[in-house]
Design goal:
single chain; mainly beta; Immunoglobulin-like; Jelly Rolls; 2 domains; five-stranded antiparallel sheet; 3 helices; 21 strands; globular
């Protein structure tokens, strides 16, 4: 495999549609991350993903399937080099483990035969309005860090029993939610609960006794010692996947007719029945008026409303509540 990889692009291909090495181009540079609530300086991140894909909106590379993409990862200094790129017009995109959101460079890049383009130092500023009040999960576009149950003994795939990193590759895990929560739904308490044990890897409908399904409402309980009623707080919700689902968010009143936020009907990735741990990435940034919070105990209600099948569900990547920006940063 190493020999074959080093020999690509091949020189023996006779087709005009397969450009040789000297007919391709290269792009290199450095990517830094700027989040002043994490570090006072721009940060190089080892293993950030940087790629060229057809021109489009931020994150459009996820849904592009008719043309070519070329990706690499950064080193410990944030340096990257994308080699052997076909001629054409591209945008440069990136995403970084440990930070939410997507990066896209505004400049279009035109690759010509033999070109060697230095894009210089690029700086990605992830969405951030204020300090982190609390967070659930790890922003890595995967639900793997959450609680994945043991499989039903009737459906065990023995290939993965000794592979904890592949525990999700078992049939029927979605049904275990109803067994763990036969009546009420998941309740997660900030400061007490552990997302690796107490946050189910997918918010799926619950199977009822008549074999139909019903939507589920998860609760996130947290305390705020001080509330600024006139300020705006920010709720960041990153989803690792969604399939014909709808997430509605309410605060401190689960029966309020109109939710604070709804995604609407989203997703067709079917990652859950295909034993996956992520599909397409979704990021929602929700403004929350400080007047909606209480000093002391508060609760977010996350309702997945769609329930025509067991697979209308979402997988979370990461959730964060940010306080108002008071100007106090690292």
């Amino acid at each position: 495999m190493t020999v074959e990889t080093s020999g690509w692009p091949y020189s023996f291909a006779a087709s005009e549609d397969f450009p040789k090495s000297n007919q391709r181009g290269m792009v290199y540079g450095k990517l830094l991350v700027r989040d002043r609530f994490v570090d006072s300086t721009d940060m190089p991140i080892n293993g950030a993903y940087v790629g060229l894909a057809p021109p489009g909106e931020v994150g459009s590379w996820q849904r592009e399937c008719k043309d070519y993409q070329f990706w690499t990862t950064t080193d410990e200094n944030g340096v990257f080099s994308i080699n052997n790129i076909r001629t054409g017009n591209y945008n440069l995109y990136a995403w970084v483990n440990g930070f939410i959101g997507d990066y896209r460079n505004d400049s279009s890049i035109t690759i010509t035969p033999g070109c060697n383009i230095n894009v210089g130092t690029l700086v990605y500023e992830p969405p951030r309005n204020g300090p982190t009040l609390w967070e659930i999960g790890v922003p890595d576009r995967s639900a793997a860090e959450f609680y994945v149950p043991d499989p039903n003994p009737q459906f065990v795939n023995k290939l993965f029993l000794d592979q904890p990193q592949n525990k999700f590759r078992q049939y029927g895990l979605w049904e275990r939610y109803g067994e763990l929560y036969p009546q009420g739904d998941l309740i997660y308490t900030i400061g007490e609960s552990n997302y690796s044990k107490d946050w189910f890897y997918a918010q799926v409908p619950r199977k009822k006794e008549d074999n139909s399904y019903e939507g589920t409402t998860w609760q996130i309980k947290f305390k705020l010692e001080k509330v600024e009623p006139s300020a705006t707080y920010k709720l960041r919700i990153a989803l690792a996947g969604a399939s014909l689902a709808e997430l509605q968010v309410r605060i401190n009143d689960r029966n309020k007719p109109r939710p604070l936020f709804t995604t609407g009907l989203i997703g067709r990735d079917n990652a859950i029945p295909r034993h996956g741990i992520h599909g397409l990435y979704w990021l929602y940034n929700v403004d929350v008026a400080g007047s909606l919070f209480l000093e002391g105990d508060n609760t977010f209600y996350f309702t997945q409303t769609r329930s025509q099948s067991p697979f209308q569900a979402i997988m979370y990547d990461y959730i964060r509540l940010e306080g108002p920006n008071t100007g106090s940063i690292v």
